[in-house]
Amino acid sequence: MKAAVFHKPGNVQIDEVPDPRIEHPEDILLQVTSTAICGSDLHIYNGFLPQKEPITLGHEFMGIVEETGDKVTKLKKGDRVVVPFPVACGHCFFCQDGLPGHCENSNPEKYGPEGALLDQKGGGLFGYTDLYGGYQGGQAEFVRVPYANFGPRIVDDRFRDEEVLFLTDIFPTGWSAVDWAGIRGGETVAVFGCGPVGLMAQKIAWLRGAGRVIGVDRLPYRLSVAERTARSETVNFEEENVVDKIRDLTQGRGADVCIDAVGLEAHRGLKDKLANIAHMQAGSISALELCISAVRRGGVVSVVGVYGMSYDAFPLGQIFDKGIKLAFGQAPVQRYIDELIEILQRGEITLDDIITHNLPLEKAPDAYRIFRDKEDDCVKVVLKP
User: Fold this and answer.
1) Which of 60, 144, 324, 376 could serve as 168's disulfide partner, Cβ 3.0–4.6 Å?
2) How many Cβ atoms are within 10 Å of 94's Cβ, its own excluded?
3) Under a CB-based contact definition with an 8 Å cutoff, are residues 44 and 147 in contact?
4) Is the pTM of the predicted complex or chain greater than 0.70?
5) Are 204 and 231 in contact (CB under 8 A)?
6) Is 66 helix (H, G, I), strand (E, B) or coil?
C-alpha cells in the first residue's frame, strides 16, 4: 500500500510499504478515507522529536473497517469510524481514570512514571515515533488499529468526513484546553496561536460560555481566519505588545484564562536561538511566558501546545506570586469523544471551516512543506488516500 513515510527531518516520501495485518484479537484493519496533517506531526518533520527508523506518520484519521480481530465486539466490517489519537487499552488504571494518554499497556518498550526526555514516556500514539510505541500512522491507505473495543467510534453517515475528522485530535484537544480551565461563564479567554488547535479552542471557549475570546498570532491570514471562523477579537503580537493589549482590554488585570496552543515551535528570534545553543535546548517557551504574563492573578494557564523537554529560566517565581493554576498535557480523547459527537449531532459547532487544503495522499511531501512554511495561507491540510 501507499503511505506517507518519515525518513529524516524535512523528508517525507510516499512509499510502498507492507499492508498491515491483524496482530491481536482486539485489532481492526481500517481503510483510511481521510487523514490530516497536525502541527504535532511537524515536531517530527522538523526534527524536534527524534526518530531513527522510517515510520508512517499521521494520528488524525478515519475510515471504513476492513477486517476485525476475533475479540472485537463493538465494530464490524463496513462500519465508518473516527479513531482517537492515543493508543489505549481501556482497562488499566489510567484508562479507567479517564487518562488514556497515560495507558500502562500501549507503550511497553518506553513507558514509565518519570516522563524523561528519551525514556519512561506515556502511552502509545499513532505515527508518533518509537518513543510512543512505534505505531504506524494513518497517513496511508490502510492502518492497524489496536484496542478497537475502546478507541474507535462509529460516526453518522449524514456527516462528510471533513465534518467529523477532527474528533480524532484537534477538537478534543481544544476542548481539553478549555475544560481544564474550569470556565463557568463570562470569562475573558486569550488563546495564543491561531493554528488548528487554537482555532478550535476559541470556538469551544464561546461554546462553554466565555464572555470574550481573543486570538493571538503573528500572521495576518491566521488572525483573519480566527475572526471569520471563531468570531474572536485578535491581536498581532508583532504589531502590538500583546500583554499590554490584553491588560488594556481587561481593566488592567489580564485574561482570566490563557491557552497556549503553540508549544515549543513558537517563532524564535536571534536571542532565543542563541539561548538554545547555550543551554542545549530545542524550541522555545516564549508562548508560555506570554501566557503567564497575560493571565490575571489567580487565573489559569492551560497548555496543549507540545513541549518535549525541560527549559532553563522557567518563570516559577512569577507563577507563584501571581497564584496561577497550570494545566498541561495530551488530550484524553476517549474521555471526551462521545460528548463531542453529541455536540456535533446537535449542530452546535462547525469543524471543517478551518480546512484550507484538501489534497490526495500522493501530495503529502508537498503538503508538509506548505504546512510547515505557512505557504498559500495554509491552516489545515486534509489528505485523501
Assistant:
1) 60
2) 18
3) no
4) yes
5) no
6) strand
Q: How confident is the model at residue 109 (pLDDT cuts 50, 70, 90)?
A: very high
**Strand stretches in the chain, DSSP E:** 2-8, 11-16, 28-37, 55-56, 60-68, 80-83, 86-87, 124-125, 142-145, 153-154, 188-192, 212-217, 233-236, 255-260, 295-303, 325-328, 357-360, 381-384
Report d(CA 278, CA 176) in Å as an integer: 34
- Report yes or no: 88 and 113 within 8 Å, Cβ to Cβ: no
Q: Residue 127: what pLDDT?
A: 98
> What is d(CA 137, CA 40) in angstroms, rounded to the nearest whole number?
13
Helix (H, G, I), strand (E, B) or coil at 85: coil
Tens digits of residue pLDDT in 229-273: 999 999 999 999 999 999 999 999 999 999 999 998 765 454 554
Exposure on the CB side of residue 24, measured as CA atoms within 13 A: 10
Cα distances (angstroms) measured from residue 109 to each of 22, 47, 131, 183:
20, 21, 8, 38
> What single letter denotes the amino acid at residue 358?
N
Q: Which residues contact 308 (CB under 8 A, 6 or more apart)?
A: 43, 48, 49, 117, 264, 282, 283
pLDDT of residue 281: 45
Looking at residue 165, the DSSP 8-state letter turns out to be G
Joined together, the cell numbers standing for residue 311 give: 527549559
Sign of the C-alpha dihedral computed for residues 38, 256, 347 and 235 taken in this order: negative
